[in-house]
Hints:
Elements: H1 6-35, H2 40-75
Amino acid sequence: MAHLTAAPARRARRSFWALVLVAVLAAGSLTAALTAEASPATGLRVGLSGIVLIASVALATRVMLALDRAHRRQRQPGPPGPRRLQ
């Protein structure tokens, strides 16, 4: 995100919160699967929930860092002009 205007920033924030929601749902599913009776289906649910949880947290982190970098870049003053010799 070289230059973050209003629309891409809004889309990135929406993506971030969607990923956080997916992570919360995956964590709930993982918790339920870990307390369920052992079976092949439970093992599959644990594996899929864990993968979705890890992926959504990783992607949400990337989006958050990109938004932070863009915000910092917008707040920095421009490069200094040429200096005069006195």
